[in-house]
Amino acid sequence: MKKTFLNILWVSFLVLAVFQSCEDDEEDESHNTGQNCMSCHIAGGSGEGVFSVAGSVYDNSKESVLPNASIRLYTDANGTGNLVATLLSDKNGNFYTTETIDFGSGLYVLAEGNTTSKNMISSITSGACNSCHGVNVDRIWTE
Predict the structure, then answer these.
(1) Do 15 and 58 reside in the same domain of the chain?
(2) Phi and psi torsions of 103, nearest 5°
């Protein structure tokens, strides 16, 4: 009887440990750094959640990701006008949101790292950042 109770207790512990570690991994980690997030995270897509803005940010080497960078969307160029949204990159350099973003006639991006910030010269009307960056234009980067 005592052995059966210990076996049940041991199995219960294992099930809880596995469930908890999987849940934590899902909350902490994004994936596919540098790829177009919107190829999956769209209405009817295979990704969980519909992203309105998503991408990846790198350090000045353009090879290593930059965690804790902020991506700010403004109504006017060079970080001026109204701040519409602020997104932070995770430990994999990825930033994303499922919040509705009103792009209007265009928003301007300011990427801020630990020591520098970089402005995107032209406005954007789509949040699929990696559909261009890393494909036919430079990766998003700052320091």
Answers:
(1) no
(2) -75, -15
